[in-house]
């Protein structure tokens, strides 16, 4: 099929929940993807922070091929070796004592919220059910996760949602302390907000949230679905703050593009959860666990993380220069290889102009262009990405 055929079939048969550009991607190599017409794009999205090791990574490809010769799926009714080895690796490289596997970020958030309510009921009794989330948050689109997501346009069409959620201003320590009362079972927060515009939590804010949770007997959940697993130059984003959660949600890059999420938790939380309290048919299959093990081994290596930090510093300097050069760019903010550029125009116009310049970038809200390149991108490719992004800004400026 040619490009027009694929797009026509998509419009006829696929539920229209996405606005896709008018090209069809057919393959990838490293930090680049190729469409059906032969055009090449430098990938500044990496599948929304999923392809941390880029496209067609030899280690991932080899792992998938080898794993496919064994078991692909048996369900969680049975033991498999890759399942337990991956769980051990995640525990050994984090604050956690136990892991629950699922298939996506929103499922991980759903699980964490359920575990928090069960823990509160098991520890304190019935009344302690409220959940605190923050302005600018994005935690997913299923009913529980959506209830803790700030953006009104995502929530309103599906109300009534899960009750008992209270929002407080992000990065406001006093407001957080006021919101975290004795009836709160859990507080959920992204150390670096992604969809909400790439906003970094302050250390003071997270320290106050942690202290308030301790006083109220509430569990602290860090949502690291997007900012975790090396994206910030630390294996876990919260490591840069010196603040430790009780639960953490993971997904996006965990299995190199295959569906996988996880909830990491301390032993006191795990003690409240028993057989039948939660489950997943597809989670932690032998093949996907072997791929996730390969990804985790790569991104947790100290040299790998140091390289991400170096690239992040380089990208910070280049984006600062872009903001100086373009009157349409107001601010660049981020850390590691997770950045947003606040714009004076709709971010979608910059994203579309980027396609013409041969780059993929995405938005984070209406006025923020987001960059989430593969963690394996080179410094030269980062320079190329920013040069082409500046050209996209200049193209849009010329039309204003």
Kindly describe this structure:
- The protein is of the alpha/beta class and 400 residues long.
- The chain folds into 2 domains: 3-57 and 302-399, Aspartate Aminotransferase, domain 1; 70-299, 3-Layer(aba) Sandwich (Aspartate Aminotransferase, domain 2).
- Helices cover 40% and strands 18% of the residues.
- It has 14 helices and 17 strands.
- Strand 16 and strand 17 form a beta hairpin.
- Helix 3 (58-68) packs antiparallel against helix 11 (286-299), helix 8 (173-179) runs parallel beside helix 9 (203-216) and helix 12 (302-325) packs parallel to helix 14.
- The model has no long low-confidence stretch (mean pLDDT 98).
Task: Record the SSE blueprint.
Layout lengths: L2 H11 L11 E5 L2 E4 L4 E4 L2 H4 L8 H11 L12 H12 L5 E5 L2 H20 L5 E5 L8 H5 L4 H4 L9 E4 L4 H7 L4 E6 L2 E2 L5 E2 L2 H14 L2 E5 L23 E4 L10 E5 L1 H5 L14 H14 L2 H24 L3 E7 L2 E6 L3 H10 L2 E2 L1 E2 L4 E4 L7 H21 L1
Parallel strand pairs: 3-15, 5-6, 5-7, 7-10, 10-11
Antiparallel strand pairs: 1-2, 2-3, 4-12, 8-9, 11-12, 13-14, 14-17, 16-17
């Amino acid at each position: 099929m040619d490009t027009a055929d694929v797009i026509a079939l998509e419009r006829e048969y696929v539920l229209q929940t996405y606005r896709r550009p008018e090209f069809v991607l057919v393959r990838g190599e490293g930090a680049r993807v190729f469409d059906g017409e032969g055009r090449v794009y430098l990938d500044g999205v990496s599948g929304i922070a999923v392809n941390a090791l880029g496209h067609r990574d030899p280690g991932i490809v080899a792992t998938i091929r080898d794993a496919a010769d064994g078991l692909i799926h048996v369900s969680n009714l049975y033991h498999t070796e890759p399942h337990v080895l991956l769980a051990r690796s995640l525990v050994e490289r984090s604050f956690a004592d136990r892991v629950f596997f699922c298939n996506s970020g929103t499922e991980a958030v759903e699980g964490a919220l359920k575990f928090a309510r069960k823990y509160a009921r098991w520890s304190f009794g019935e009344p302690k059910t409220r959940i605190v989330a923050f302005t600018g948050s994005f935690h997913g689109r299923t009913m529980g996760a959506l209830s803790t997501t700030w953006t009104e346009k995502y929530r309103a069409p599906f109300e009534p949602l899960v009750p008992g959620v209270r929002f407080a201003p992000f990065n406001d320590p006093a407001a957080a302390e006021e919101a975290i009362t004795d009836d709160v079972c859990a507080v959920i927060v992204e150390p670096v907000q992604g969809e909400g515009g790439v906003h970094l939590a302050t250390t003071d804010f997270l320290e106050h949230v942690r202290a308030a949770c301790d006083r109220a007997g509430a569990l602290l959940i860090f949502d690291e679905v997007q900012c975790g697993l090396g994206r910030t130059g630390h294996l876990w984003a919260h490591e840069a703050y010196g603040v430790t959660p009780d639960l953490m949600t993971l997904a996006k890059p965990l299995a190199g593009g295959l569906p996988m999420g996880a909830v990491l938790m301390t032993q006191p939380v795990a003690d409240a959860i028993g057989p039948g309290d939660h489950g997943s048919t597809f989670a932690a299959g032998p093949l996907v666990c072997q791929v996730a093990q390969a990804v985790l081994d790569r991104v947790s290596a100290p040299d790998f993380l140091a390289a991400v930090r170096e690239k992040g510093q380089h990208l910070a300097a280049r984006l600062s220069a872009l903001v100086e050069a373009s009157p349409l760019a107001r601010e660049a903010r981020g850390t590691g290889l997770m950045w947003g550029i606040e714009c004076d125009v709709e971010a979608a116009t910059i994203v579309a102009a980027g396609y013409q310049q041969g780059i993929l970038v995405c938005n984070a809200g209406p006025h923020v262009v987001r960059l989430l390149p593969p963690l394996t991108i080179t410094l030269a490719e980062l320079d190329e990405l920013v040069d082409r992004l500046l050209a996209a800004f200049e193209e849009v400026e010329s039309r204003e």
